[in-house]
Amino acid sequence: MEREDSASIASGTLTQDFAVARQPILDRAGRTLGYELLCRPIDTVLSAPDAATASVILHAFGDVDLASFVGGTRAFINVTRSFLLRQRPLPLAPGRVVLELLEDQLVDEELLDVLRETVAAGFRIALDDFVHDASNDALLELASWVKLDVREHDPAQLAKAALRLKARGVALIAEKVEDAEEHQRCMQLGFDAFQGYFYERPETWRGRTVPTAALTTLCELAATDTDVSLHELERIVRRDAGIGHRMLRFANSALVAPHDPIQSLRQALALLGVAQVRRWALLFGIAGMPDVPHVLLETARVRARAAEALSEEIAGADADRAYIVGLFSVLDAITATPMPELLSGLRLHPAIVRALLHGEGPEGELLQALLAFEHGTPPLAGARVDDSQVAHVYRQQASGEPPTRLF
């Protein structure tokens, strides 16, 4: 994934490209407390704040490992009243995320209730561009951080606001600090953290999300009120490399307890649970991410099913592992991202990693046989699966015929 200054983003790139900007928040000692993450659309305008929030979360947790953005610190993510009410509870790790409630939100009992639930779940709340008055007093009791825009206050107003809020026991973040004089003034006023161009301009990270073909189906299924089984979800996820890759990232988020290396998509979905899968699918719906058909997605599906069917012909091969190897074998070509980067943080079974990176092991041998058939090259010396078997099974899966045994 590439990094660049946010001012240098070019327009007109592919729809599956994404850009997320981050700006550090520093404590009084100059250490990084966390990063505010902001969506930077490339060829579209995300005018809806909720869509921008959902996009940031999905890119940070689904397309890239969160640690790539924030290291061991926290991600500050903007949220609105409507987003919190639509997406409750959040499928995120409370210890890694601070929810930054944007200014000018209607403060009513409905918002306060969802914030109480969120705080009880372990999240910390920051109030952005906060102006304290009687109408929003209840928010302060739920907030850990309050952000004050130094550009919106003269020195006397800033001192008065800081004194009043510090008396309420919340930590203060000075934002939009642009020079040494403003920094020194905020230090003297007792601010706890600082953000602005004086420290660092937003840094933009660009990448390419894996396109999907069945995301709309998953979102529609997750949005229904009827009970959805793990089997139904697996049926959708198994046929889509883009969704499968994201579900593996979600399953490896800090919200899920430590687990053995993943060997199948079924295992990843079981780790998440149906409720969590539905919450992630709802986020896709809020973000408005469309399916972007790609010819290689069909190649991935065929390879996955062919590798699964042929796995019984090679001693030591596992059908579930073979399926993932086939499904993910096109991801680097689709995204123009090195395979090691795509696999980082997924906690996949070592046999899957070896197969995808080096073509080694039983599953790697199956992948090599399928690639040889696609490219019209001779099979590898010593191959344990006959090339006529490979051709027969591959054509079956490409045509959608039910599998039949050759021998």
The CATH topology assignment of the largest domain is TIM Barrel
Mean pLDDT: 86
CATH architecture of the largest domain: Alpha-Beta Barrel
**Roughly what percent helix?**
40-55%
What does the main sheet amount to? 8 strands, mixed, barrel
End-to-end CA span: 46 Å
Number of domains: 3
User: Which structural category fits the helices and strands?
Assistant: alpha/beta
**CATH level 1 class label of the largest domain:** Alpha Beta
Enumerate the strands of the largest sheet in spatial order, edge to edge or round the barrel: 2-3-4-5-6-7-8-9
Tell me what you see in this structure:
With 407 residues, the chain is of the alpha/beta class. It has 3 domains: 2-207, EAL domain (TIM Barrel, Alpha-Beta Barrel), CATH 3.20.20; 210-287, no CATH class; 295-399, no CATH class. The protein contains 19 helices and 10 strands. The protein has an 8-stranded mixed beta barrel with strand order 2-3-4-5-6-7-8-9. Helix 13 (295-310) packs across helix 18 (361-375).
Overview features:
10 strands, alpha/beta, 46% helix, TIM Barrel, disordered C terminus, eight-stranded mixed barrel, 407 residues
